[in-house]
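Predicting structure from sequence has reshaped protein science. With that in mind, we have picked out one protein's residues alongside their backbone shape tokens:
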Amino acid sequence: MEIAGHLCEVQVDRRSRVRCEPDWHLGREWAKSLKDFDLWYVWAGRGQMRLDSSEISLRPGVCLWMRPGRRYEAEQDSEERLGVNFIHFSLLDPTNGLPLSDFEPPFEVWPTRQADFVDGVMRRVIELGGEPRAEVAERALLGGLLAELEREQGEAAHQAIPGIDLHHRDVVVETAAKIRESPAQAPTVAGLAQRAGYSVDHFSRIFKSIMGLRPQDYVIQAKIERARQLLAESNLTVGEVAERVGYQEIFYFSRQFRQKTGQSPSEYRRSLRSSGG
């Protein structure tokens, strides 16, 4: 696999998905002990991180590609605890299996526009930890993710989104992360726009430009994805699932579920159980 101009093999070391404890902070000693790369994706909360020559905001949608020998000190907002995916990994020379000593990551901080994709791939790599015969899959998934983040960052450096500045993107990515985290509590589009400080039309236009969907469609997608998870992993009735994801009427929930998946909620659950999924 080629990443940042280097042929390399990916080796996954440690990984997890965490909601930081109330007293969490990243002290100076942590960075001194860093021996491999560490990829972070912030999926919830807010905080600050001090790098060698700058200070950045930690917020949903931010990716960090940390490397040994750099400064990383961080703390979180006590009212909005951080939620982070992290994967420690090494990049190896395919000819001898040794770490690539001259590898320079293409970015250190990147606010991705592909929040669902990044979160989903990292979660799958995390889930594969410890499973038998999963090493090839997790290497391929993480390598593909790194290559795509490099591509996205490089493309953005040469081609700005018309009419969209960094502040708009940050607002939308953070809003989308909050929707995914609690789709049942998602406000109306007017409420989302008000929280973001935009008119409804302006907010909807920016949101679609960045996320690829209108905000109302994004909320529905998040609700259906959460419903699929509950149908697969719990014994809640269809009515209880509908209520958990924010629907007051089971008929309306079932109709939207079928529109998005091609199956009713009951059919979806039966298909999973009949296939052992």
